[in-house]
Amino acid sequence: MVRPSPRVLDGIGTVARLGLAAVWFVSGAIKAADLNQAYIAVQAYDLLPHGVVSVVAAAVPFLEIALGVLLLLGLGTRLVAVLSVVVLVAFIIAISQAWARGLTIDCGCFGGGGQVAAGQTAYPQEIARDIGFMVLAGWLIVRPHSLLSMDGWLTKRPAVVGED
């Protein structure tokens, strides 16, 4: 059986890292640009006390931006991937409970959020999308090596015999 070279695996890791970085950065930036809408989105889940909603709505966008920047730089990749899974699991739980309780809300994952018409929810697609993002993070947890990363420059991985 032919095994992919470490360079190919590093390339896959780079795509996973940069893809997840883009997701986090874009979703956080959209929310940070309109914190009032982020508040409406968090409040729509009807999970948290009023005072906590404000804190979560203000913190989540900047957490997402930080995760995106760290992944873009490739700094602390494995740890950031683990944190990404934790955040994504929390998002999946929030979406699932909204679905189970019959709430009709937009997830607010990429801006927007709040109440929507009964036929306008997309809970299965939102959960599937987040699971897809978890697959990217999972790759980075198992194999955090990637090209053009600060982790690689800081650790200077030894060359593998036969690696180009």
Describe this structure in words.
With 164 residues, this protein is mainly α. The protein has one domain (6-148). The chain is built from six helices and two strands. A hairpin with a 7-residue loop joins strand 1 and strand 2 (114-115). Helix 2 (35-44) packs across helix 3 (50-73) and helix 4 packs antiparallel against helix 5. It is elongated and about 50 Å long. The two termini are 20 Å apart. Residues 12-142 form the Methylamine utilisation protein MauE domain. It is found in: Membrane. It is a multi-pass membrane protein.
Our estimate of the beta-strand percent is: under 5%
| pLDDT < 50 runs, ≥5 residues | none
Mean pLDDT level: 94
**Helix- and strand-based class?**
mainly alpha
Number of helices: 6
Order of strands in the sheet with most strands: 1-2
Tally of strands? 2
**Distance between termini?**
20 Å
Number of individual domains: 1
Main sheet?
2 strands, antiparallel
Helical proportion, percent range: 55-70%
